[in-house]
Amino acid sequence: MRYSGFRVIAEALTGHKGWKPAWRDPAPQAAYDYIIVGGGGHGLATAYYLAKEFKQARIAVLEKGWIGGGNVGRNTTIVRSNYLLDGNQPFYEFSMKLWEGLEQDFNYNAMVSQRGIINLFHTDAQRDAYTRRGNAMIMHGADAELLTKDQVRQMYPFLNFDNARFPIKGALAQRRGGTVRHDAVAWGYARGADMRGVDIIQNCEVLGMKIENGRVLGVETSRGFIGAKKVGVAVAGSSSKVMAHAGMRLPIESHVLQAFVSEGLKPLIDGVMTYGAGHFYVSQSDKGGLVFGGDIDGYNSYAQRGNLPVVEDVAEGGMSLMPMIGRARLLRMWGGIMDMSMDGSPIIDKTHIDGLYFNGGWCYGGFKATPASGFAFAHLLAKDTPHSTATAYRFDRFAKGLMIDEKGQGAQPNLH
Amino acid sequence: MSRITGGQIDRSKTLRFSFDGVAYAGHPGDTLASALLANGVRLMGRSFKYHRPRGVISAGSEEPNAIVELRSGARQEPNTRATVIELFDGLQAQSQNRWPSLKFDALAINDRLSPFFAAGFYYKTFMWPAAFWEKLYEPIIRRAAGLGSLSKQDDPDDYDKGFLHCDLLIIGAGPAGLSAALTAGRAGARVILADEDFRMGGRLNAETLEVGGGSGADWAAKAVLELAAMPNVRLMTRTTVIGAFDHGIYGAVERVSDHLAQPLPGKPRQILWRIYAARSILAAGAIERPIAFENNDRPGIMLAGALRAYANRWGVAVGDRVAVFTNNDDGLRTVADLKAKGLDVTLIDARQGDEVIDSAGRLGLKSITVRRGNGRTETLAVSALGVSGGWNPNLNIASNHRGRPVWSESLAAFLPPEGAIAGLSCAGAAAGAMSTHGALTTGADQAVQALASLGLTASTDLPQAEDAPVNLKAHWYVHSGKGRAWIDQQNDVTVKDVKLAKQENFVSVEHLKRYTTLGMATDQGKTGNILGLAVMAELTGKTIPETGTTIYRPPYTPVAMGVLGGRARGEDFKPTRHTPSHKWATEQGAVFVEVGYWLRTQWLPRAGETTWRQSVDREVLQTRKSVGICDVTTLGKIDIQGTDAGAFLDKVYANTFSTLGIGKTRYGLMLREDGMVMDDGTTARMGQNEYVMTTTTANAVPVFRHLEYCRQVLWPDMDVQLISTTEAWAQYSVAGPNARKLLEKLVDQDISDAAFPYMACGNITVKGTRARLFRISFSGELAYEIAVPTRYGDAMIRALVEAGRDFDAVVYGTEALGVMRVEKGHVAGNELNGQSSALNMGLGKMVSKKKDAIGMVLSQREGMVQPNGYRLVGVKPVDPAKALTAGAHFLAKGAEAVAVNDGGWLTSVVYSPHLGHSIGLGYLKGGDTRKGERLRVVNLLANTDVEVEIVSPHFFDPEGERLRG
Amino acid sequence: MANALKALTPLGHDAPVSETIGPVTITENVGVALASLASRLGREAEVATVAQAAGIPLPGPGRAETASYGAIWLGPEQWMIEAPFETHEDIVAVLKPLFGEAASITEQTDAWVRFDLTATDLPALFERLCGHDLRRNGTGSATRTVIEHLGCYVVRRAENQVSVIGPRSSARSLHHALITAAKSAF
Amino acid sequence: MIINHPLLGPRDSQEFVYLGDAALIRRPDGMADGALDKFIDYTYLRDNPAGQHRELWYHEQGDRSWLVVTRNTVSHEITAVELARDVARTEGRSK
Predict the structure, then answer these.
(1) Is the CB of residue B911 less than 8 Å from the CB of residue B613?
(2) What's the domain count of chain A?
(3) What are the C-alpha distances in Å from D49 to residues A255, A302, A337?
(4) Domain B159-286+394-453 bears CATH identifier 3.40.50.300
(5) Does A249 contact D at CB distance below 8 Å?
(6) Which domains occur in chain D, in start order?
(7) For B541-557, what is each residue's pLDDT tens digit?
(8) Same domain, A265 and A167
(9) Subunit contact D35:B709, Cβ cutoff 8 A
(10) What pLDDT digit, counting tens, does each position of B792-821 carry?
(11) Most buried of the four, A86, C18, C68, D18, by CB within 10 Å?
(12) Is the Cβ–Cβ distance between B349 and B331 less than 8 Å?
């Protein structure tokens, strides 16, 4: 069924009797052409684009729990395409363009809201780096501006311009950046995929892979064996666990990233802001909660929870940047498991096993990448060639010395 | 007047306060809620979505409805629960999320339009036309959303952080917590007893139950007195344990000053305690839950236990004609206690088939409609209704580690998961022991067991107390009518919304919560979640535990950002590191710049200089002309000793050091294992087995960590010892043609070129004071770095300046330093960006392939040795009048500014007063073979496009004759 | 000797600062010379013998001791040696001849700022400063920990006396943190 | 978290800096044949287990010991803490 204002009014007047399930709960079939392992944002988007853009059929998404329960359900909802390196920027800009048309495309209001993002800088070296980055963004077709301190002050007069330990000197701005209602992204893709015949199978955990003569034949699951011509894995923090079923070790570590939301407040912060002198980024949701986060806890973890030091570190950053939030209250905190890669950039690639494809290593850039990741992965699955914006996301870049290291931290995942 | 007799309030004192500008009076011991109720005020807030009139439903921190803006001005606190605000004289509170007034709220129109605002409606609309979402719909939604408001002024209060240690942390000071504390305290254990309330005793303060033959409240007071006298017990009232973290670490927030008009001088508003507990007991009691029925959200309708608490603890009758709707015996206590207070009370017992099916009263309860078991319905005029659907063990913190709560049929509630948090056990109602006797017993027993596991023995001595059964018949919501029955009152989630979620297949409890916003309000669903689960269970034909559980994340109740930040704000966000010349430079009016935690002199303006460029140009020209002095103390210094020190340096540096002679210094390049450059600096050999390594200012700490890693983890049998000496020595660079002449006036030894040649180092004395001298140069001039013990650093800069007078010596800052290093083509921070190899920097030849140094192997990967890779180049504008900008990108003439044409970027740019124009360093694809080429550097952020020539990075004295002079 | 350079205290004054807040007195101490002493690999026994003869205690992990010299355990086989600045300004020159090539010795005197705190209830102050539990760590305990982002040694000299030894360049930040905590705690 | 330091007893993990999998102890010989491939695996590939994990922590705000901590990455429970130098020696590392 198609969603629209008229439908909402019609249903309201008739007691909402007509609404259909947003997606079915089908039993798994014996075999599919495509199995996408992982019912998160990336997996659902992959299935959606496989069906819609690449006209493929007999597609299933296998989710060990409930769809959208991974990082798409536990992030700070920021979208942006303000990357530096050639390997990344075209991909994230492609993602931004998909965000811009997403709601009309899948007929679901994911509240894509381009209220702008600014990255504050506090030193000349940061300014130089942002100048380099802003130019790279524009050369890749994105938008970027360098804001003066006064321009920042006009936008957010309540920031600490008086006695800051690291004074604000300006900011790199991307007006097209913003936020998206994260859960709605998973639900919108799920509904769109389901409408196109994709079987979304929840509570179906992959426990093994059937591989013969270097070719994948299907997956063993908690609901029995399911055959497949091609298997695409998009399980973020569980990447190493799932790919171990295929005997693979990955250039990935799993780390916990905490995020936070405050009680609902009347409008304070229109756009997205990142602090350049501490670990703190923030936006305000349409419901009024300040949604903010910081750095990962820093140790390997599969527990969806973190510890106090990072909570305090984030709050210290927030209080230093905007001392007016002292009396706002932190309502809820949660943790997501990040697939931190060795150079801070993702992998969308075939494996050495025929029919087995991998999508992961998103670190904490995964949410903003959702549409392009799904599109590019679907492209790879359907055509066996990488999408033009994702050609650098190869497994062998480490062997070849072609790392995509935005932060310049080297092979230490918890620093990316 | 609804004050009645009794209660734990001090009627001898009167406290004045105001709500929405109206003046009222209360007493010490009151909360804002009890005081307002005592003044006959039932309407205290509006709900989030439908702006329904709301009053208190609880007497504790689980309150979803009565949330207000407390205080005014910079101290305004939005969303504060009236039920936990301790009354103080002069308290001001305002209602929130309403306009123009609480009684008349324009957005109450949403309530009439509620059919259009069903769960998730916004996901289905506002999509057409595309542009309207952001331009029209969303701005309206954003303005309407949110609850209270911040002042947008800096928080004027201070916050502390602290650390506490104990054998046993007891969370909650009700009968179970007090019993546990007495047991453990008497046994001599280190005990912390924390309670969010300002009075310990928990429910005992709200009940008329007897303990040990006297009133429960009196027993609690006596217990507190006994505990207060124990040096091994720390009693913490007004302290909320916010969460359980790993390995027995608990977060707790103590509200030191929130019960005062404002904090006392020097005292914090709140303290965040990090509690290290060997064992802990959760004795947080239970939280009552309502039964949902049509219009069950009117002011005057509250939890039966709260109604009783207001009467017993605060001497407040919420109404004179009262009804109680219950499905368990606890509701009968409310009936009995209120009757004893002389009130007219009607019982509606769901177990007899009686139900409340509707209520009336726009701004406050006027009447309820009751359907008796025999089907007859009647309307009762009441101003207060107490509802009890049973009590949920308050297991919140026990599920912080995501352990699954366990369903209890007899209580129709979830019990805390056993052993889900190492070292934590549960007692009292939190563990499902609902009687006073059960609380006292389990509290004591858990304490005995906890201590036993620590090797301590304790005995129990329990007072007699009631042990009545619960007698509950699960009843979640009333099946009746077409109206709305509220489950999550603050977020306006009704039974209908849950039904819609089911209909649209949002049946997983996580989908239900996210789709309907059930449990997402400021109370985190403490009273409502279980109802939502129960309704979904009924709709899906599953049991409640099959449908799902509700686990809680920290914090237990919302926590002020300020207290999580503590003292680290403003200038105290991070420590400040001062250089030895700071005092002198301040006297000179120096301009300082943050370099990491350091404050360094950026430049030193002189009288008449109006722009920074004038100062910097002078500093550079005078240094190259005569001599300049610069504080370089911030560079990292690491003392490396041991018989394997030289071999060790060969491992950590890409180039060779074991061949370095004693008394000599060498430039070293340090790689990461992935072949990129980690850091660079000079290392001096001071003795046979003694080296001093210098690092960049930024990498001093990471390099030291890396060296310890190499020494302990990779090569554990190397005889190498390390210690940082960065702060032990005040080090100054003296550079320029007259550098030696200047130093000769201070140094007691012969430092002629013969005695102290280029790259020499050694121990010397400065007018008798121990010092070190290194003949190294970053500026390209004849230069030395001289170091004295830091305490003499201030005297040293003064001595250098004094000795420099004859040469018009200047002191230069980081800007001039930067100019001179770019003129010499030395790499620094902007080039050492972690993305660059030695080859990129034009230092490829320094990487020795003859030894196994860190990073050597991977630096040879094909992608890192491409001939067309980035190479460091010098850049100068073809038109000297044109300025360059760092971060601008290289483009060929006529090439479009698109990524495929991107040739690289300018890393560092300075104005060279020596050359009279802007110069830069940059990374250019294939740059090593492109000298003499003409390109453009384009900065699209400022729309500049400058033609440049690619030159050698060595702009100044390329042969390096000056530094050997 | 003549024209010798004049010393400044870590707080940037000519003489040490002492301040009393309620029951706490916080005093800058510049009278102690410091050197790190680390055994060379395989020569631990030799170092122990020499140290004993010279009256240099070599306390175990987490401890500090005083004999002719004072000493604080820094890490495995590494100690911070304390001696009066008056007599041992060039402390390395004094120690090196004793240990020769058996140990690595490095001057540390001016790498640190030392504040001596006295109070009747020091634990009540330190529970606002760091996670080091003074209620459990009595006289002779010595450890490095974090105070307001600064790595500091906390040395329990006596029931009522603790030395906080922190990075010299951050002396003012550390002093500010100690003063603030004292005002808050008492 | 609390790390039970073999020399100093229980310490808040906030005093430590985390590096990663203790397999990093087994650094290949850069001069041996096939060093390149060995270094690529060593530097970039990880087991990343959900469960027992031996990992390197550095007591930066303490005694500057590198430790090998055996920790469960699902429960965060720590079952062993050793000095990395001792572990390295038992794994055959020397000079």
Answers:
(1) yes
(2) 2
(3) 11, 9, 13
(4) no
(5) yes
(6) 2-90 (3.30.2270.10)
(7) 999 999 998 889 999 99
(8) yes
(9) no
(10) 999 999 999 999 999 999 999 999 999 999
(11) D18
(12) yes
Write the CB contacts of C12 (distance below 8 Å, at least 6 apart in sequence). B578, B582, B583, B794, C171, C172
List the structure tokens of B533: 């689960």
Average pLDDT over residues D18-24: 98
Q: What is the dihedral of CA A179, A183, A189, A194, to 10 degrees?
A: -170
Whether A98 is in a domain gets the answer no
Q: Give the closest of B145, B559, B888 to A329, CB-based.
A: B559
Q: Which residues of chain A lie closer than 8 angstroms to D1, CB-CB?
A: 299, 307
Contact B858 D84 (CB under 8 A): no
Query: Could you report the per-residue pLDDT of B453-486, keeping only the tens digit for each?
Result: 999 999 999 999 999 999 999 999 999 888 999 9
Our CA-based measurement puts residue A226 at a distance from the nearest CA of chain D, in whole angstroms, of 25
Could you read off the pLDDT of C56-109 as tens digits, one per residue?
Answer: 999 999 999 999 999 999 999 999 999 999 999 999 999 999 999 999 999 999
Domain map (residue ranges) of chain B: 15-125, 159-286+394-453, 577-634+728-820, 636-724, 866-965
On whether residue A94 sits in a domain, the answer given is no
Distance from CA of D17 to the nearest CA of A (A): 9
Give the three-state DSSP class for A261.
strand
Cα distances from B882 to residues B132, B749, B877, B878, B937, in angstroms, run: 46, 48, 6, 8, 11
Asked whether the predicted pLDDT for residue B252 surpasses 50, the reply is yes
Question: A358 vs A45, A211, B870, CA distance in Å?
Answer: 14, 15, 31
Please give the pLDDT value at position C1.
Answer: 40
What CATH homologous superfamily does B866-965 map to? Aminomethyltransferase beta-barrel domains (2.40.30.110)
Q: What is the DSSP string of A290-342?
A: EEEEEEEEEEE--SS---HHHHHHHHHHHHHH-GGGGGSEEEEEEEEEEEEES
Query: Cα separation of B672 and B675, whole Å?
Result: 5
Answer yes or no: are the C-beta atoms of A409 and A415 closer than 8 Å: yes
pLDDT score recorded for residue B2: 85
Whether residue A257 is found in the same domain as residue A405: no
Which of A19, A112, A163 is the closest to B500 by Cβ?
A19
Instruction: Give the residue from B677, B680, B710 showing the smallest Cα distance to B859.
Output: B677
Pairwise CA distance, residues B189 & B319, whole Å:
47
What is the amino acid identity at position B456? L
Pairing of strands B91-94, B15-19: parallel
- What whole-number distance in Å separates Cα of residue A355 and Cα of residue D82? 43
CATH architecture classification, B577-634+728-820:
2-Layer Sandwich (3.30)
Residue located via tokens 């990395």: D84
Regions of chain A with pLDDT less than 70: none
Q: Are residues A411 and A273 in the same domain?
A: no
| Residue bearing tokens 């305002």 | B94
- pLDDT, tens only, B580-634: 999 999 999 999 999 999 999 999 999 999 999 999 999 999 999 999 999 999 9
On whether both A156 and A23 belong to a single domain, the answer is: no
Q: Which architecture characterizes domain B15-125 according to CATH?
A: Roll (3.10)
- Which residues, numbered 190 to 219 in chain A, qualify as contacts with chain D under a Cβ-Cβ cut-off of 8 Å? none
Is residue A102 included in any domain, yes or no?
no
Query: Of the candidates A289, A324, A341, which is a domain's last residue?
Result: A341
- In this structure, are A258 and A120 located in the same domain? yes
- Give the domain extent around A60: 5-77+183-251+344-415
Residues of chain B positioned with their CB less than 8 A from the CB of D55: none
State the smallest CA–CA distance between residue B748 and chain C in angstroms: 12
Give the DSSP letter of residue A20: P
Largest CA distance in chain D: 44
Domain membership flag for residue A373: yes
